[in-house]
Amino acid sequence: MARTPTSRSSSGKAGGVTLAMVARRAGVSPQTVSNAINAPELLRPETLERVRAAIDAMGYRPHRAAQTLRTRSSRLIGYGVQSVDVDRTTPVMDRFLHALTHTAEEAGHRILLFAVPAGSRLLAPYQELVDDYSVDGFVLSDTDRGDRRQAWLAKHHIPFTAFGRMWSDKQIGDWVDVDGAAGIGRAVDHLAERGHRKVAFLGWPRGSGAGDDRAEGWKAALRRHGLPVRGLRAESVDDVDAARTVALRLLDTGADAIVCASDTLAMGAYRALRERGLTPGDDVAVTGFDDSPAAALVSPGLTTLAQPMDVIGAECVRLLLARIAEPDREPEHILLEPRLAVRESSAPPRPLM
């Protein structure tokens, strides 16, 4: 667990206009402006009208999340669900969402789901939920380089936590993540201990935070074991057929094992092996990442890394509720190690005849 200091402004700025500026224009105290927003029944009609006119003229937008925390709680936590292709499922994220929902309900909250386009980092849906539903905060996932959501939420004083790191030098907010580098390193250790000496890596295109992290884990583990690295890394989008095409090129290198950044990529490696008349595990070892339902059902069973989704979901809710209760607390960062689930696909290499 790592902690880093943070600073937070409490000036009440919204779009460059502060509550104090509105108070000066209306000729009232800042508390009167606050009452006009949160408890208008406390003001005389003429005072309320004057303050509201100043708010409208200056375009002041109060922080609705901060208002909610001062007055009442909506008991709602927002979570954006990204669309996926109709022929693909996301069982790992389904488990995360179940854990998130269950833990939130135990704490007396509800998860409010909203749709966002795949790969989108649009901020409008988050603003709309704050304005229309006064959500208490957000849980984020699918964080990546260039993701603007954390900085935007922190700037607007909206509580949030993330399943996934920010992947930048500047860390903002609380997060829970899985140590992909350590997990992939463990898979390489497992293969090296079983006698594999040419271990390739099938990962995602460079530039993704999680993908690059897993690739670094592969490279570091090979160097620990004194095994070759050069020419053994290939990249594919997270699609079975695309991964099959790329895995065929890895087989041409003479690799005796393929470590994959996801179970989807591993299924592509399975297809490539069968296209060559080879058997996963018997001829070339394959490992995945996620421990999806297919990993145990496919033949041979896929050795893969299982993420502790129940713990991740529970920790995300815990961190968010702690942030809501104590907005100025130091950010908390939790890095969890995945578990290696060993199955038939990582058998030792066949002895040379």
UniProtKB/TrEMBL annotation:
Pfam families: LacI (PF00356), Peripla_BP_3 (PF13377). Keywords: DNA-binding, Transcription, Transcription regulation. GO terms for molecular function: DNA-binding transcription factor activity; transcription cis-regulatory region binding. The keyword Disulfide bond does not apply. SUPFAM superfamilies: lambda repressor-like DNA-binding domains (SSF47413), Periplasmic binding protein-like I (SSF53822). Residues 17-71 form the HTH lacI-type domain. CDD domains: HTH_LacI, PBP1_AglR_RafR-like. Gene3D superfamilies: 3.40.50.2300, lambda repressor-like DNA-binding domains. The keyword DNA-binding applies. This is LacI family transcriptional regulator.
